Amino acid sequence: MTDDAMETAILELLAKRRPGATICPSDAARHVAGDDPDAWRPRMDEARAAAARLVERGEVVVTQKGEPTDPALARGPIRIRRT
């Protein structure tokens, strides 16, 4: 799995949702690794890192408790939405 695959998964999932809708990084991890928790859970850090790269490029916004946040500083659950 490449970094590009996780970024692509995030963008594909967001494209299928209405404007303003969010996804969880676990949605992208499942999209790439499948529904088995033993396969997707280890990829959560990769999903969060991919989201951070997309934030840097201005393609998505990461939120926590509904507010935009820096993904490098966020601890706990985050959501990803299109810009």
Would you kindly provide a written description of the structure presented here, covering whatever features stand out?
The structure is a single chain. The chain is of the alpha+beta class and 83 residues long. It has a single domain, classed as Orthogonal Bundle (Arc Repressor Mutant, subunit A), CATH 1.10.10. Helix content is 47%, strand content 16%. It has helices at residues 3-15, 25-33, 37-40, 44-56, and strands spanning 22-23, 60-64, 67-68, 79-82. Strands 1-4-2-3 form a four-stranded antiparallel beta sheet. The mean pLDDT is 94.
Mean pLDDT: 94
CATH class annotation: Mainly Alpha
The structure class reads: alpha+beta
Structural domains: how many: 1
Output the helix-strand order. HEHHHEEE
Low-confidence stretches: none
The percentage helix is 40-55%
Task: Give the number of DSSP strands.
Answer: 4
Question: What about the largest sheet?
Answer: 4 strands, antiparallel
InterPro entries: DUF3253, WH-like_DNA-bd_sf, WH_DNA-bd_sf
Organism: Agrococcus citreus
Protein name: S-adenosylmethionine tRNA ribosyltransferase
